[in-house]
Automatic annotation (TrEMBL):
GO terms for cellular component: plasma membrane. The chain crosses the membrane at residues 177-200, 215-233, 245-263, 275-293. Pfam families: Protoglobin, PsiE. It comes from Thermocrinis ruber. It is found in: Cell membrane. GO terms for molecular function: heme binding; oxygen binding. The keyword Membrane applies. This is Globin-sensor domain-containing protein. Residues 3-154 form the Globin-sensor domain. InterPro entries: Globin-like_sf, Globin-sensor_dom, Globin/Proto, P_starv_induced_PsiE-like. It comes from the Bacteria. Keywords: Cell membrane, Membrane, Transmembrane, Transmembrane helix.
Length: 299
């Protein structure tokens, strides 16, 4: 990790920048309470924020730390001690499993908040511009250190592993990639087969081999299955890119399959018992789909 002297050179940080921050240090004291409230409103944008702030005690402790950071942002001397404190913040975020994206998005909020406050309090002037430039430099340094601490902790854990653990992890990653590729390939092939089958059914209808009523319902059912396969393929691609896999897609595929069966059986009055059974299955799958949707929406 870079030293504070190296960071100052990289970000062109000077004594004038520290002086610019100290000149508006009163903003840290005046707005720290409002800042914390606005910051917590910003955290509501993250669907799983409650996972990291799970109790009132944790939230109160976190608010105090945020207030101290906000006030010290203007008054601290940007030296090795300050760098060490920022690094510890990043370490804590890494240990609780907080995604680095949340830190970056939150720092963007801080930047916008400070720009609005500075402009409101000081108006537009050359002095305001100089102060905003220094604030942006300081925020970039803060973000740089905290994000780098994430990376260094990940590397430290990796290097702490034994030789065979690393080999095992690398091989498991390769196997996992092969599985994902095979699933995507298979779904794509099944999708192509379904398209060919739908075209074949339409041809049977046009040639009179398949009655229009039965053929129309069969085509509609096949399209439902194709749509479900398409959704499953899209979900798997998102999963490969790093998103969590949604269970409701699998339930949707099952629903499409059962609905297709019901459409076909609806032309056979003698199969009332089977239709009633399948209708109950559709109802149960619908309830499961709704419950999964509700749960995933809250995450």
């Amino acid at each position: 990790m870079e030293t504070i002297e190296e960071l100052k050179v990289h970000y062109n940080w000077t004594e004038e920048d520290e002086e610019n921050l100290r000149r508006v240090a009163w903003i840290g004291e005046k707005y720290k309470e409002e800042f914390v409230e606005e910051f917590y409103r910003h955290l509501e944008n993250f669907p799983d924020a409650s996972k990291y702030l799970s109790s009132k005690e944790i939230r109160d402790r976190h608010k105090e730390k945020i207030k101290r950071w906000f006030a010290s942002f203007f008054t601290s001397k940007y030296d090795a001690q300050y760098l060490k404190g920022l690094y510890r913040v990043g370490e804590v975020h890494f240990k609780i499993g907080l995604p680095p994206h949340y830190v970056q998005a939150s720092m963007n909020f801080v930047r916008s908040y400070l720009m609005n406050i500075i402009n409101k309090e000081m108006g537009t002037s050359a002095e305001t511009n100089r102060i905003l430039i220094s604030i942006n430099k300081a925020l970039d340094i803060n973000l740089d250190v905290m994000i780098n601490s994430f990376r260094e902790e990940e590397l430290r854990l990796y290097h702490a592993m034994g030789k065979y653990q690393k080999i095992l992890i690398e091989n498991v990653k390769r196997i996992s990639w092969f599985f994902d590729f095979f699933i995507v390939f298979t779904l794509a092939v099944v999708g192509v087969f379904l398209i060919v089958w739908i075209i074949y059914e339409i041809w049977l209808i046009l040639t009179g081999v398949l009655p229009l009523e039965r053929g129309g319902l069969s085509v509609l059912g096949s399209i439902l299955i194709l749509y479900a396969i398409s959704e499953l393929l899209s979900e798997e691609i998102k999963h490969i890119k790093g998103s969590a896999l949604s269970l409701k897609v699998f339930v949707g595929v099952a629903l499409a399959a059962v609905i297709r069966k019901v459409l076909i059986l609806s032309l056979s009055p003698e199969k009332v018992q089977e239709l009633i059974t399948l209708s109950l299955v559709i109802l149960a799958l619908g309830v499961v789909f709704w419950l999964i949707y509700r749960v995933e929406s809250k995450l």
